[in-house]
């Protein structure tokens, strides 16, 4: 008869394997991120740029099943002042910035529209939509 410890080990083995796999994937994505060429212009500061770039690189790698993002090109499309009304007729308390980001990877390019918006809680949020 199996002891409770053996049953627990057997049940949690797949979970531990999954965690090791995710850690390995995260490390691979982190190492690859440092070699990306940046071009264009963005209004995002360093920390916000890194967070946005990381989010888009993860999406692009999963979409293309490619492990290496070669370059990111950014272009500012629109600045909306605070107090303005956006496309959904809501007043933007802190304003927003809309940018076009293009990621080059494995002989393909993926385009995203990125909107940065201020809020009361965390400072700046970003919304990304693949074009």
Rounded to the nearest angstrom, the distance between the terminal CA atoms is: 58 Å
Mean pLDDT: 76
Report the count of strand segments: 5
- Category by helix and strand content: alpha+beta
- Using only C-alpha atoms, the radius of gyration works out to 20 Å
According to CATH, what is the topology of the largest domain? Double Stranded RNA Binding Domain
Instruction: Determine and state the CATH class of the largest domain.
Output: Alpha Beta
Topology:
Blueprint (H helix, E strand, L loop, with lengths): L3 H30 L3 E4 L5 H19 L4 E12 L15 E10 L2 E12 L3 E8 L1
Parallel strand pairs: 1-2
Antiparallel strand pairs: 2-3, 3-4, 4-5
Describe this structure in words.
The relative contact order is 0.15. β3 and β4 form a beta hairpin. This protein has two helices and five strands; from the N terminus they run αβαββββ. The protein has a five-stranded mixed beta sheet. It folds into two domains: 1-34; 37-130, Double Stranded RNA Binding Domain (2-Layer Sandwich), CATH 3.30.160. Helices cover 37% and strands 35% of the residues. It is an alpha+beta fold and 131 residues long. The longest helix has 30 residues, at 4-33.
């Amino acid at each position: 008869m199996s002891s409770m410890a053996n049953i627990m080990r057997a049940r949690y083995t797949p979970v531990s394997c999954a965690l090791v796999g995710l850690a390995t994937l995260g490390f691979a994505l982190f190492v690859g991120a440092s070699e990306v060429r940046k071009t264009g212009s963005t209004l995002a500061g360093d920390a916000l740029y890194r967070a946005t770039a990381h989010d888009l690189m993860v999406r692009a790698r999963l979409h293309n099943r490619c492990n290496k993002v070669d370059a990111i090109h950014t272009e500012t499309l629109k600045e909306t002042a605070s107090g303005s009304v956006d496309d959904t007729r809501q007043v933007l308390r802190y304003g927003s910035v809309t940018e076009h980001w293009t990621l080059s990877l494995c002989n393909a390019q993926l385009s995203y529209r990125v909107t940065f918006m201020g809020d009361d809680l965390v400072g700046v949020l970003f919304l990304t939509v693949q074009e």
